[in-house]
Amino acid sequence: MISFAFLATALATTPPGIVALDHVQRFTLVEPAVFWWNADRATFSKGTLFVVQVQSEWALTLQVGGHVLYVGDTPAARLNPGHIDGHIVAYVPQWVDLKTVPIFWGPATLPEQVKPKLAGTANLNAATTPPFSHQDVDIAMVPQREFQTHKDLELAAALLIEAHAPSDRDFAIGYRAGSQ
Amino acid sequence: MNRFMLLLCAAIGCLPNAKRGNDQNRDDGGSVPESSDADTDADEGIPDTDECDEHAERIICESDTAIACDASGDVLSTTVCSPEREACIEDLGCSTCSISLETLHLPYSQTSAFIGIRPAITEENIAIERLYTRPMKVDISDSRRSQGHLELSSSDPHLALWLDTEPPLFADDDGILRIPVDQLPATVLAHAEGSGPAQVTATDPLCLQVEATADFHAGHQPTLTGTPISSAPWIHRADVFNHTDIINLAFSADRHADRVDTPVVVYIVPHRSPADWAADPTLNDVTEDGANLLFVGSTEDNIQALWSSSLTTSEDRFSEYDIVLDFDRDGTFSPGDIASGPGAHAPGLTVMGDLHGVGPHDVQITTTSGGSWIDQIIYYPSDIRSLESAPLIVISHGNGHNYLWYDYLGEHLASHGYVVMAHSNLTGPGIETASWTTLENTDYFFEAIHTIDSGVLSGRVDPDRIVWIGHSRGGEGVVRAYDRMVDEDYPTSNYDADSIVLISSIAPTVFYTIEYSNPHDRPYHLLAGAADGDVHGGPSSSVVQFFRLTSAAQAETQSTYLHGVGHNEFNCCGFADATGPDLIGRTAAQKAAKAYYLALIRFYVDGHAASLDFFSRRADVFRPANLAEDLVIANTYRPDKRRDVLVIDDFQAQTDTAVASSGWDVSFSVDELIEALLIDQDGAFSWDPSDPMNGMTQGCCEGDVNRGIVFSFDADSHISWTVPESAQDWSEWRQLSLRLAQGTRHPKTVALDDDLSFSIRLLDTEGEMASIQLESLGRITHPYRRTGLGAGEGWANEFNSIRVNLSAFDDANPKIDRTKIATLFVEFGPRHGSSQGRVALDDLLLEH
Predict the structure, then answer these.
(1) Which DSSP helix (H) or strand (E) runs through B613?
(2) Contact A177 B402 (CB under 8 A)
(3) Given this model, what pLDDT does residue B315 score?
(4) Is the CA virtual torsion B586, B512, B546, B739 positive or negative?
(5) Residues forming a β-bridge with B350
(6) ipTM score
(7) Which among B827, B800, B440, B429 has a CA at the least distance from the CA of B620?
(8) For position B717, what pLDDT does the model report?
């Protein structure tokens, strides 16, 4: 109970924290993968890879009390911390229209415990961050890609990390383990 | 007179032609020759029917009379043996009855000789155990004797005796060692297999009027080395030292009163196997100044520096030695000497190098991947192919961290011969995913081992010796992973739950209740920083109260809590989070982590007993060498309470403050004593009298059941446990341990403003007392002086284990009888240590 009170306090003071959209790319997976970042743990074969510019202090990846990056009703799969350069590379397991679906910071919790239809929807409804404009999305949008495996998705994300969050280069290197 | 007759006369002192005096029983045992008349029997044609008819040229005995017979079967002479001093022996005559039984190296015959308790003699160990015996010289005064035997027996069946011959001659089934007199003089070895006094008695069945005795007292021979202290027990005995330490000999003049004023040469020699010692007991001292010649008994406790420089040739490793006190000064380890180490599982003395130092192996680093979240970096010794099968150390990082951030630890452990694998850890979603990646990466490592660096590790990594180290969410992840294996039968292909020999968490989160994140029966270690700015350990959130995991652990549990250390100083590159005073920085923190992990893994993986000292002894007294001088460390070690321990009081089974968990009666004079769950009630560190468990983070939530007591004092006061008769024999227990913490921000803690000390006193049933002021064994740290979470200064209540060798009470008062301990006192106040304080106490144990 104590920890929940702590988190509720944090939520009440959450600013939008989302600055800009730098990259949007729809993809397909030939070999479906499990999406671990919500409680559904559903298998997915298509998704949206994106790079979002954020306020650095909200990107800080804490063990406890850090905010969760949402896209719509689901936590996004974050592939780098992003707090130094203010850029996060992430994806969600569906094709989303970011002109209508917001990217926002939700309350601190473990994403694996978020049920999209319950807490996820509640957090979406409580979000004050608006979706990006059509223009922002159109500028950021790049052509769709097909990845054979989730590992290939990570390797693509590694390039985005190096481009947008070079301070997180270790994460890019990490995704390339055994393939360098 | 022929030659035989001359011998007879020499034996019984006959006089030629002396007349036999049949009725003369002489007190002096003198002989009486036959009269010349007697010799005329044959002359007169009267058949001679005397005692010698069938015993020509012999000496026969009739009662206590020796009768010498001549070649004709006639009585040559008779001698009445002195009933007090002689016995009549066939063919010998009157023989002086006298047995000498001399304990070697025993200058004062009236003194009981000490023997250290050793394992029971077996065919396999007798060669080495022979060296641990106390020898006795046994003989009789009449060197002419060739008949009969001496009988040696012990009043205590724990004292084994045998004749030091090849092969050895043991006692018969009736417990009596029978030594034929033709083997005298002989050396008899006494070997103690149990404690207590014993008397060895030597008797001569042919001389029943005499016997000889030797007194012994057997007990455990305490460690021979230690560090001097200024009050009783004068020495803090220990057998593990850092290379920066001075090693002192501690030889009790009370325990070894029989050796008082005896010169002895002390040797420190490389540790050798029992077989090597038995084959070659030659002593070669390794110290720079050679063997020390000492005269024991000249000081109260015979404490003398033995070794003060160049303790080890390789500072990054450890060196093992045996100690032999050569009392016969013959340059060999032989019966009657006192030794520590030879033939034992552990050496007599271990000298530790700088544990944070690079090890002897060059390190290879490689990466591999089995797909998403199966990314690994592997550190291994370059000469792995020439090494024995190595254990696997797995490192699971925390949230926002990276598996490439633990080079410092991976390279360090690999340089010391271990194979280390750090893996990508899916911590972002939570603990379940983190545990999944730990489980799967461990499996994958063994699955793919044939492909890693062309299979160099194949067959060289032991899947039955796996250590899981996790940091932060990864620190909970490794605990959860083990829980899933034992509670949920998580399937693995290349290892199982028994393969996990140790789990260690660095500043772990505790998102789950202990039903789901539980180390269960695995040895568990917690490493955490008190300046953690993330998983801070305060009572404001259940998730950060990492001591909950140590409460839940059932097996051996240890914690290493570093003041001035933040969360991300345990990796290379996490953001700076350290919060609080006296920050030591990343380099110093990692130095400590490297040292402690090397010790931890050596103990739990390699069975290197000496390494446990870094956890079982207070870190302010003994810590890895050359860590940051200002680093404050609170540490605990709790043995597996399910075995080899007598729980006097852990406050779990009884809620009445007058009754211990063991059922023993408890009384106290300290103030404000309350027994309850170790849970802070208000989520803040501010002192509030309505929250007596303020600052406790050992529990918070469902399933947290760890209980203890808190109390205050500002005058001499105590808590005492009355020992029931059935539990009064403490002679076989080796240590008494308990853990204590200061109550953060309590007015008395604030007033004390220092680390805290106290005393322990034992009282036996005869009224003898032995008290030990424990400051020299370590003090209870003042809570880390961090602010926040309420008014005042001081962070979470940090427990420290104090462990006392019970032999120290013997050193403090040799008259204390540890077979009859009546009361245990834990004492506080000005006469016993700190003048005032607020204290939490838990886990009062007797340990083997």
Answers:
(1) helix B613-616
(2) no
(3) 55
(4) negative
(5) B240, B320
(6) 0.92
(7) B800
(8) 98
> A2 vs B683: CB contact, 8 Å cut-off?
yes
* Closest by Cβ to A178, choosing from B369, B426, B573: B369
Q: How far apart are CA B297 and CA B302, in angstroms?
A: 6
Task: Please provide the DSSP assignment of B696-731 as one string.
Answer: -BS--STT---EEEEEEESSSEEEEEEPPGGG---T
Chain A residue closest in CA terms to B573: A170
- Whether residue A170 and residue B404 make contact (CB cut-off 8 A), yes or no, is yes
Residue carrying the six token digits 């370590």: B778
- CB-based contacts of B183, cutoff 8 Å, min separation 6: B163, B165
Chain B contact probe: residue of A30, A63, A152, A171 with most B CBs at under 10 A: A63
Cβ within 8 Å, pair B567-A63? yes
Q: How many CB atoms lie within 10 A of CB B700?
A: 27
End-to-end CA separation in angstroms for chain A? 47
- Range list of H helices, B33-122: none
- Beta strands at B735-742 and B665-668: parallel, antiparallel or unpaired: unpaired
A109, burial (CB in 10 Å: exposed 0-12, middle 13-18, buried 19+): buried
Q: How far is residue B801's CA from residue B749's CA, in Å, rounded to a whole number?
A: 18
DSSP calls for B629-640? TT--EEEEEE--
Q: Which distant-in-sequence residues (6+ apart) come within 8 Å of B77 by Cβ? A: B8, B9, B12, B14, B15, B18, B20, B31, B32, B33, B34, B67, B68
| Min Cα separation A33/chain B (Å) | 9
Question: Domains of chain B (ranges plus CATH)?
Answer: 3-96 (no CATH), 99-219 (2.60.40.1930), 225-352 (no CATH), 363-638 (3.40.50.1820), 645-847 (2.60.120.260)
Task: State the alpha helices, DSSP H only, in chain A.
Answer: 2-12, 56-59, 121-126, 134-140, 150-164, 169-175
Query: pLDDT value at position A16?
Result: 75
Q: Give the pLDDT of residue B35.
A: 43
Q: Which two tokens stand for residue A116?
A: 């999209």
Q: In what order do the strands lie in the sheet with B207-219?
A: B113-116, B207-219, B196-204, B149-154, B177-180
What pTM, to 2 d.p., does this model score?
Answer: 0.90
Evaluate whether B551 touches B756 at the Cβ level (below 8 Å): no
* Nearest one of B553, B550, B556 to B609, comparing CA atoms: B556
Q: Residue B542: helix, strand or coil by DSSP? A: helix
Please tell me the distance in Å from B631's CA to the nearest CA on chain A: 25
State which residues of chain B have pLDDT below 70: 1-49, 107-110, 297-302, 308-316
Query: Is the separation of the CB atoms in B618 and B568 below 8 Å?
Result: no
Residues of B in contact with A179 (CB under 8 A): 369
CA angle A87-B437-B514, nearest 5°? 105
Displacement of CA B351 from its chain's centroid (Å) = 16
B209 touches chain A (CB under 8 A): no
Inter-chain CB proximity A175 and B399 less than 8 Å = no
State which H helix or E strand residue B598 sits in: helix B585-606
* A64 to B544: CB separation less than 8 angstroms, yes or no: yes
B400, B424, B429: residue with CB nearest A36: B429
Please name the helix (run of DSSP H) or strand (run of DSSP E) that holds residue B461, with its range, or none.
Answer: strand B461-471
Q: Provide the number of CB pairs (under 8 Å) joining chain A to chain B.
A: 100
Q: Which residue has the tokens 């003089």?
A: B185
Return the closest-CA partner of residue B836 out of B756, B743, B740.
B756
| Residue among B350, B343, B327, B342 nearest B114 (CA) | B327
Label residue A5 by pLDDT band (50, 70, 90).
very low
B702 inside 8 A of chain A by CB: no
User: What tokens appear for B257 in the block?
Assistant: 């009163």
Give me the pLDDT at residue B598, please. Answer: 98
Rounded-to-integer distance, Cα B702 and Cα B691, Å:
19
Q: What is the pLDDT of residue A179?
A: 67
